[in-house]
Write a structure and sequence with these properties.
The complex is a heterodimer of chains A (330) and B (258). Chain A contains 14 helices and no strands. Chain A has 330 residues and is mostly helical. With 258 residues, chain B is of the alpha/beta class. Chain B is built from 10 helices and 10 strands. Classes of the chains: A mainly alpha (330), B alpha/beta (258). At the A-B interface, helix 9 and helix 10 of A face helix 2 and helix 6 of B.
């Protein structure tokens, strides 16, 4: 930041866009230690030296922390791509299923699991997103006093519920009490419980970012509160809400515990969410992990893992695009 | 198109705190009334009670009466949304809707209240932008974002947006305090034109501005810190600035305090 300010000092009349670009280049493209190294030199031997040393130490610590955080990520991606990419290029991977493919057979398809995961996550989002967004709207725009505090507290608790507990809860209600069978839908219900708090919290943050002045501007035009919330507040926060929803989806897409308890795996195509076993990518990974000693199964496992990562990535890209076109224009 | 406001014995509260006490005054139609006074004396608070915007803040309530011609703004049957359609407001900081184009900003009040007819909207948008002296500057880029305009233009856009819903009264809460002198001049010229059609009430910290634009001036003050604000006196602007009745007004005008 200081470099950008320095650059701006000699001439106050620098056009806005140049100042802005100066800011960004100062923040991002300056090599670490570059400018401040020069500053440190010029300050050599004067009382500012201690500060320059601290600056260098802080820089080193931050870069080290950043590096530590990135290493596992790169490692995981490298391993999964290295071991699984091969499967994604086989002819049947995107079209077939695992029917009659034994652990020691090579290949087979993952389409059943891809479709199953998308279908299950889709129904989860369909239920959780409206509930989550409406809850956030209530908490930010309407909620005052006791009820709002209780709801907010409940959401906090819900976000701390382990996924396996959510699954057991749904099992107790859906299977034991209501007598339905285990199914994709039952697992989706458990995922709903995990997704709602994520959506509520992220949407809440986004709604709080909408300046109060916009609400007041709308009220002052004689616009009723509900229309202000729908057309002004939600519209302004749209891209942030989309990002939150996608984070929520990504959060539940790889969730495995509810599937273990509520949606037993099948190697076949299965489009019925309400009856019978249900194929999903995490369960496919789990299935092949059981025969990890066999190279064929291990390969499938890595392939399914990479596919799952790609699905999450794809969703993120779609979300970015939607958010970009819905974003506040400057 | 313009109505008289009659306020009698108005107290404003935020929760248990009495912010403004015992205001009685008349705002004449088709004129500009300026509210002046030191910060925290309740002039903005009082202004907001004229279109019930103070109710947006939790705990905000009033005692007393505000009449808009023969309508009681605080009658039990009166919907605050209706009040705000009749009494528009322009804020201190320009606040165009960031997701909307220039056109959409001006049309917002009508659209959000259900007007859909393209021709009607086109007409009103043009008329409002002309009314706000902004039309020639933006007519070729109506579909560009409103937030891309300069501060002064944004404020005129907000005025265009406010007059597009055809209110009777226009309240302005320090509309120039975030603007440079040139933009301020443009807004002041505009206020002079708008008073032919609207009743205008403007809060300002700038006494020269009050002297320049207003026909009548009301001086608000606090008795002491922590006490509620009150109306000291209201009179013709020339009289307030040249020969006020109250000593406190003269002290404030002449810069002896505040």
């Amino acid at each position: 930041m200081s470099t950008a300010t320095d650059r701006r000092l000699p001439d106050d009349r620098v056009p806005d866009d140049q100042v802005a670009s100066g800011d960004t280049s100062g923040d991002t493209s300056t090599p670490p230690g570059g400018r401040s190294g020069r500053d440190a030199l010029s300050e050599m031997g004067n009382p500012h030296r201690a500060r320059a040393v601290k600056d260098v130490v802080a820089r080193v610590v931050m870069w080290a922390a950043f590096f530590l955080a990135v290493v596992p990520l790169v490692w995981i991606l490298g391993t999964v791509i290295g071991k699984g990419f091969h499967m994604l290029t086989t002819s049947t991977w995107w079209t077939g299923n695992q029917r009659n493919v034994n652990s020691d057979d090579f290949g087979g398809g993952a389409r059943h699991a891809i479709e199953g995961t998308l279908q299950m996550v889709g129904i989860t989002a369909l239920i959780a997103v409206p509930i989550g967004i409406l809850t956030a709207v209530y908490l930010v725009e309407y909620g005052r006093g006791h009820l709002a505090r209780v709801i907010s507290f409940t959401v906090d608790i819900l976000s701390g519920v382990p996924s396996i507990v959510a699954a057991l809860f749904i099992y107790a209600i859906w299977v034991t009490a209501f007598g339905f069978s285990r199914s994709g839908f039952a697992a989706a219900l458990a995922l709903v419980l995990l997704m709602i708090p994520v959506i509520v919290r992220s949407t809440e943050e986004m709604l709080k970012l909408v300046p109060n002045e916009l609400r007041e501007a709308s009220y002052a035009l004689g616009v009723p509160k509900w229309a202000t919330v729908v057309k002004i507040v939600l519209r302004t926060a749209f891209s942030g809400i989309v990002t939150g929803v996608l984070l929520g989806i990504a959060r539940v897409m790889g969730e495995t515990a509810p599937l273990l308890i509520l949606a037993p795996y099948t190697k076949n195509f299965q489009r019925d969410l309400f009856n019978g076993n249900f194929p999903t990518l995490p369960m496919m990974i789990n299935q092949d992990r059981g025969d990890f000693a066999l190279a064929t199964a291990a390969e499938r496992m890595w392939g399914a893992a990479l596919t799952l990562i790609l699905l999450v990535l794809l969703l993120n890209v779609i979300g970015r695009v939607i958010a970009h076109f819905g974003a506040v224009k400057k | 198109m313009a109505k008289r406001i009659d306020v009698s014995d108005l107290n404003v509260y935020y929760g248990g705190f009495k912010a403004v006490e015992g205001v009685s005054m008349t705002v004449e139609p088709r004129s500009v009334t300026a509210f002046i006074g030191p910060s925290g004396c309740g002039k903005s608070t009082f202004l907001r009670t004229l279109n019930r915007m103070h109710e947006v803040i939790p705990g905000g309530r009033v005692e007393g009466k505000v009449m808009l011609d023969d309508q009681d703004l605080y009658a039990a049957s009166m919907d605050p949304v209706t009040v705000r359609r009749t009494v528009g407001m322009v804020f201190q900081r320009p606040n165009p809707f960031p997701t909307m184009s220039i056109y959409d900003n001006v049309a917002a009040g009508l659209r959000l209240n259900g007007v859909k007819n393209k021709k009607t909207l086109d007409g009103i948008v043009e008329q409002s932008l002309k009314g706000a002296n902004l039309w020639t500057e933006v007519k070729d880029r109506l579909s560009k974002p409103g937030a891309g305009l300069s501060g002064g233009q944004q404020q005129r856009l907000c005025i265009a947006r406010a007059i597009a819903v055809q209110p009777q009264v226009l309240l302005m809460d320090e509309p120039c305090s975030a603007l440079d002198p040139i933009s301020t001049l443009a807004i002041e010229d505009l206020i002079n034109e708008l008073k032919n059609d609207f009743t205008i009430v403007i809060v300002t910290h700038n006494m020269q501005q009050a002297a320049r634009v207003s026909d009548r001036t009301a001086f608000f003050n606090l008795k002491a810190t922590g006490e509620p604000g009150r109306l000291v006196e209201v009179d013709d602007t020339t009289r307030i600035f040249n020969n006020p009745t109250e000593q406190a007004t003269e002290d404030y005008i002449s810069g002896r305090f505040g």
